[in-house]
Amino acid sequence: MDLIVHFAEGFLKLFQTGADTFISWMKGIVPVVLLLMVAMNTLIQLIGEHRINRLAMASSKNPLLRYMVLPFLGSFMLANPMALSLGRFLPEKYKPSYYASGAYFCHTSNGIFPHINPGELFIFLGIAAGIEQLGFSTAELAVRYCLVGIVMNFFAGWITDFTTKMVEKQQGIKLKTEVELHH
């Protein structure tokens, strides 16, 4: 009987800990994420969606813009999963690479810009808790994570360009290199 009682107490403590964490997030990170989302939507409206779309199309011509700047801007302004929608402005040949880079940006920028992917913020917060216990700055961790991510995410996209070429050759196909937008 003691074993069953001990199990029940532990089971309930698990949910109490989850509830305590949830309440702490409601007082801390949730309002920040909500306000960042409002700010980004406002910024998009002020800049104009058509201007953002033109930037995306212009970015398709250069690998640095295509896999470093465009995914970062998409993640920052549109958040996950909408950041990946900017890939529609790229030729078919670069869409797999943009997805590789863009998907990573939704993770590596999350520490400094929590509105990008709030569903996975718990991963960064778990690492940050350990960093805090060691007495280090979580802001420094977030900035470093973002900067390393920008470089590594570029390489993820660029390397995918090479693998896409290999698959094209293996399959005997040629993906389009021109953008075809249908309005």
UniProtKB/TrEMBL annotation:
Keyword Calcium: no
Bilayer-crossing regions: 22-44, 64-84, 142-160
Classification via Pfam families: EII-GUT
Keywords: Membrane, Transmembrane, Transmembrane helix
An individual GO BP term: phosphoenolpyruvate-dependent sugar phosphotransferase system
Gene Ontology terms: cellular component: membrane
Name used for this protein in its record: PTS glucitol/sorbitol transporter subunit IIC
Organism in which the protein naturally occurs: Niallia nealsonii
